[in-house]
From TrEMBL:
The keyword Kinase applies. GO terms for biological process: 'de novo' CTP biosynthetic process; UDP biosynthetic process. CDD domains: AAK_UMPK-PyrH-Ec. Gene3D superfamilies: Acetylglutamate kinase-like. It is an enzyme of class 2 (transferase). PANTHER family: URIDYLATE KINASE, URIDYLATE KINASE PUMPKIN, CHLOROPLASTIC. Keywords: ATP-binding, Cytoplasm, Kinase, Nucleotide-binding, Pyrimidine biosynthesis, Transferase. It comes from Weeksella virosa (strain ATCC 43766 / DSM 16922 / JCM 21250 / CCUG 30538 / CDC 9751 / IAM 14551 / NBRC 16016 / NCTC 11634 / CL345/78). Pathway: Pyrimidine metabolism; CTP biosynthesis via de novo pathway; UDP from UMP (UMPK route): step 1/1. GO terms for molecular function: ATP binding; UMP kinase activity. GO terms for cellular component: cytoplasm. Catalyzes the reversible phosphorylation of UMP to UDP. This is Uridylate kinase.
Length: 236
């Protein structure tokens, strides 16, 4: 096993599958099964999931809402997705804990770093909900922040695309995929992997990022076992 402790970042939008909004149970189940494969290997798994399939702060602003109000609604959306994923993981007998950055003790523990790492050591999957708990941030930033706090070996950003390309592969046929790329190259080429706040935080803390396609079964397991999947971003 190459990575002993991972932080898996999933986007809320991916959970929609072919639906227009909300959560596709088939995608949820597929994700849960892939996560189980790596837990069974002995890998410690923490997860941050977005909320874009339900609500985004900017959506609120577009309809005249206060930004901060919209962002808190977005954070609550991530809790709904976290609970859905938690349910799917428990359906296949994984032990889980949900910790949120906004207190809601009836449904989740508050985020406590020491407690989170203890859960991981005991083989529980830990899901971090409600982003960073602050408006004007994103779940990518929450993912990087939590990854650093719990000393994750790597952050795995599951997307629909199988890595980082020279251009958007869905628009440009000549786009080429990178197997590895440095932080510096990403800045210089103006590539978009995460928002800049998240990306710089990751860079400054020497956290490697792997961007990969989470919708292909087996990818997560192969990654954890050290196979070349997706694109690796590092400082060397
Ligand atoms: N959000 C926030 N602070 C955070 C994390 C999230 O305000 O620390 C809000 C923000 O409005 C964002 C929404 O929650 O638009 C959903 O998160 P995001 O867009 O990152 O989810 P994804 O695109 O990954 O589904």
């Amino acid at each position: 096993m190459k990575y002993k402790r991972i932080l898996l970042k999933l986007s809320g939008e991916a959970l929609m599958g072919d639906l227009q909004y909300g959560i596709d149970p088939a995608i949820l189940q597929q994700y849960a099964e892939q996560i189980k494969e790596v837990v069974d290997l002995g890998c410690e798994v923490a997860i941050v999931i977005g909320g874009g399939n339900i609500f985004r702060g900017v959506q609120g602003v577009a309809s005249g809402m206060d930004r901060v109000q919209g962002d808190y609604m977005g954070m609550l959306a991530t809790v709904i997705n976290s609970m859905a994923l938690q349910g799917a993981l428990e359906d296949i007998d994984l032990k889980t804990r949900l910790q949120t950055a906004i207190r809601m003790e009836q449904i989740a523990e508050p985020f406590i770093k020491r407690r989170a790492t203890r859960h991981l050591e005991k083989g529980r999957v830990v899901i971090f909900g409600a982003g960073t708990g602050n408006p004007y941030f994103t779940t990518d930033t929450a993912a990087v922040l939590r990854a650093i706090e719990i000393n994750a070996d790597v952050i795995l950003k599951g997307t629909r695309v199988d890595g980082i390309y020279t251009a958007d592969p869905e628009k440009d046929k000549n786009a080429e995929k990178f197997d590895t790329i440095t932080y510096e190259e990403v800045y210089n080429k103006g590539l978009k992997i995460m928002d800049m706040t998240a990306f710089t935080l990751s860079d400054e803390n020497n956290l490697p990022i792997i961007v990969f396609d989470m919708n292909t079964n087996g990818n997560l397991k192969n990654l954890v076992l050290g196979e070349k999947v997706g694109t690796l971003v590092t400082n060397n």
